[in-house]
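Section 5: illustrative case.
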């Protein structure tokens, strides 16, 4: 088992292209079942790293493949923009 606070320090890495996706900002939890349904990652920085793009990345729980000591591996297609939310 892993605590939510432990997730904040883990790198999120995409298996399909090796990209580091950023830190976990939030979790989506189904209130009826108490299960995590998605990880929410902070919007990536742009404009020389000063501002965020405004679109968080939502990773459905079924796309989370492995929890390691320092990383969480997910499997997303690089060009699939359906995972982004405003």
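Designed sequence:
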């Amino acid at each position: 088992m892993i605590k939510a606070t432990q997730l904040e320090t883990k790198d999120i890495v995409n298996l399909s292209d090796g990209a580091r996706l950023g830190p976990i900002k939030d979790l989506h939890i189904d209130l009826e079942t108490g299960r995590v349904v998605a990880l929410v990652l902070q919007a990536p920085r742009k404009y020389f790293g000063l501002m965020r793009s405004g679109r968080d990345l939502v990773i459905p729980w079924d796309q989370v493949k492995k929890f390691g000591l320092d990383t969480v591996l997910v499997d997303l297609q690089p060009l699939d923009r359906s995972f982004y939310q405003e």
